[in-house]
Amino acid sequence: MTTQTAGTRAPGAPRLGNARALSCRECGKTSALGPHYACDECFGPLEVSYDFPRLTRADIEAGPHSIWRYAPLLPVPRDIASRPTTEPGYTRLVRADGLAAELGMRRLWIKDDSGNPTHSFKDRVVAVALAAATEMGFKVLACPSTGNLANAVAAAAARAGIRSVVMVPANLEKQKILTTAVYGGTFVTVDGTYDDVNRLASELAGEHEDWAFVNVNVRPYYAEGSKTLGFEIAEQLGWRLPDQIVVPIASGAQLVKIDKGFSELAELGLVEDKPWRVFGAQATGCSPVAEAFSKGWDVVRPVKPSTIAKSLAIGNPADGPYVLDVVRRTGGAVADVSDPEIVDSIRLLARTQGVFGETAGGVTVGVLRKLLESGQLDPDAETVIINSGDGLKTLDAVAPAVSVPAAIKPTVAAFQAAGFDGTDF
Length: 425
Ligand SMILES: Cc1ncc(COP(=O)(O)O)c(C=O)c1O
Ligand SMILES: [Zn+2]
Known about the structure:
- About 35% of the residues lie in helices and about 15% in strands.
- The chain is built from 15 helices and 13 strands.
- It has a six-stranded mixed sheet with strand order 4-5-13-10-11-12, with helices on both faces. A four-stranded parallel sheet has the order 8-7-6-9.
- Strand 10, helix 9 and strand 11 (about 275-285) form a beta-alpha-beta unit.
- The longest helix is centred in the middle third of the chain and has 15 residues, at about 255-265.
- Residues about 1-5 have low confidence and may be disordered.
- The structure holds pyridoxal-5'-phosphate (PLP) and zinc ion (ZN).
- Zinc ion (ZN) binds near residues 24, 29, 41 and 42.
């Protein structure tokens, strides 16, 4: 592998906008852009480094209504907006006064990423991975997934007209199975946990060097897609950073990259540099990062997941140690909530805001509530929470808790007899 310093583009290197090199998150060694994910010196994970141009708010505001308005800050070709992609992003930031009132908070916002093309934030990371992979000559888009990534990869490959190979644990929610299969790529259900599927994918990535496993061999590019959540939040707040943000954790990449997105905006002078605190949310049945945080460990001890929050059921999270770094550096925390608390929180969000989040959203709202009660989150500070996926994909989680009354005859008498015209609302 040739090495280079940021600022030059190696001859024959992929044309990925302002991205200049890959650099090791552990030892800092840089290497040329390419389909690499581990440092050849210390095996540490690689991340993309850039030579950013001068960029103004107006430049960004004149861009497309998708993540491609931030293309100069991503490892993608300059003409990305005119290529066939699912054009994710630009989702709504909802002022959550109803939920804030219930929780005794002053200024709360929900970044509602269920509004993406396949209804989760995964469309962001996949669109960036696809752009980089295509530029590097890959013809197949693949992934191991806890469900939402499967939807996003299958849809993005269909849009781009390339093959997909998607692998998931067989016990996923039926909604996530069907909403992947419908796109018609190669779909593999595996008898095992996500961590088993991930291991299989890593072995297959070694056998099929022409397959771009978005979260394995092109992971440095994929992960950068989550910066756009941070960029959008800041832009939608009127080019301002929030004081606190609560983010769900599976691998931990989303949390780490939202923080990186905030840092880059501050470095580029696009927002005022001020402190922000990052909080992480896990389900108790899969809470290796919360455990490491509470015990003061630097490493994350893998667990075997058992929770209704299947999208977050990664027992051995790749970015776990980096989550701990971000959370400790910014003065945040990581906490977890039980399955009944997740269901309760999904219903709380729906009842107070008219937003139906998936189980990951329930985890995030549940942790928001828990950290307010414990005094770790400041109720007076401006806070953003991420709703990263759509409740329609995890219906079984709430079905037992939601009662639907029996059908009545279409008469006023039957309506009254059933007690529906009471005055208790
Ligand atoms: C809905 C949802 N939210 C959050 C996450 C966590 O993302 P990350 O693996 O980047 O921590 C996932 C991961 O699959 C997800 O599907
Ligand atoms: Zn290294």
